Amino acid sequence: MPEAVAELRRCLADDYGGTLMLRQATTLLRSPLMHYCGYWEPGVMPFARRDVPPRVQDAFIDLAWAELDEVG
Q: What does pTM read for this prediction?
């Protein structure tokens, strides 16, 4: 899934000027918890909420390849 993570990062950077930050949950979650923070141009957030979740699902369906201990 590293290719899907790269696509997620590209989408966030190129389409929305954002970055991806990962935090490991302390308990099991049914689905990823996305938190959009910072300043968003008016009218952009609905597009991000539409475009980002499918890419998150593609990127993190299987985290076996990720080294989350190194992510801060």
A: 0.68
